[in-house]
Each structure stands twice: as C-alpha cells, then as structure tokens.
C-alpha cells in the first residue's frame, strides 16, 4: 500500500456555497420624505422612475447633496424601494451616504429635503453645502 489517504469530496457544490448576505439599505427614508417624493414624481413628466440622490463638489464647505429626477435605473445605482417610492443612489455617493436618513421638513421659512448623515463633518452657515467623509474613513471594518 502506498499510504495515501482518500479524502471525501463534497458531491453537491451548492451545499458548500454560503447564501449571499443581505445588505442594509444605504439610506433610510422617512414618511415625510416618501410623501414628498411621491408628490414630486406623481406630477413630473412621463418617464420618471424615481429620484436620484448624489453628492457633488461645490459650495462653501466643499460638497452638497443633489436630488434630481431619474429617467432610468443604471446598472451601478443603489436602488432603495421603500414606502411606495424609489430612490436611486449614485454609486459615487454611496460611501458618503451610508447610514443617512433622508427627511423632508417644512418650517416658516422653507421646505426642503434634509439629510441626517453620520458621515457629515461640518456644514456651511447657509446650510446648502456640507463636508462629508467616506464611511470607511472612520475605521469601520465594512
């Protein structure tokens, strides 16, 4: 005898494959934000599939949130469907928006979407621009 050892080989490769983990949504949408998104998309021109959220450079603090109508879903978009509305997150903004809550607030002077973002470092006095850091910059393991 040669002294070789027979090893048992798994006969069903699917049995050794782990199920994919579900990922938490990049953002949460409040009831007020969902109602406002539904109003805006309901009265918009035909062909709107939702709203697209992004982060762009500019403003006093260096960055600002963008909210615009989405005419298509791109392969790279993070799609959030919640409370009857669809929000598409631009892939370049995902790390800046992880854990963010999108709200809509109305007060005596203004009505606007508000982003409660744990990745926000600072904001300018006018409230239109922010400074954000990517979620991984905090030393998180994800």
What's this, in brief?
The chain is mostly beta strands. Helix content is 11%, strand content 35%.
Question: Can you characterise this structure?
Answer:
The chain has 142 residues and is mainly beta. It has a single domain, classed as Hypothetical Protein Aq_1857, Chain: A (Sandwich), CATH 2.60.300.12. Helices cover 11% and strands 35% of the residues. The chain has helices spanning 31-42, 94-97, and strands spanning 27-29, 50-57, 63-70, 78-82, 85-89, 100-106, 111-116, 120-123, 130-132. A four-stranded mixed sheet has the order 3-2-5-4. β6 (100-106) and β7 (111-116) form a beta hairpin. The radius of gyration is 22 Å and the shape is globular. The termini are far apart. Mean pLDDT is 81; it is low at 4-10 and 137-142.
Question: Secondary-structure map with pairings?
Answer:
Blueprint: E1 27-29, H1 31-42, E2 50-57, E3 63-70, E4 78-82, E5 85-89, H2 94-97, E6 100-106, E7 111-116, E8 120-123, E9 130-132
Parallel strand pairs: 1-6, 2-5
Antiparallel strand pairs: 2-3, 4-5, 6-7, 8-9
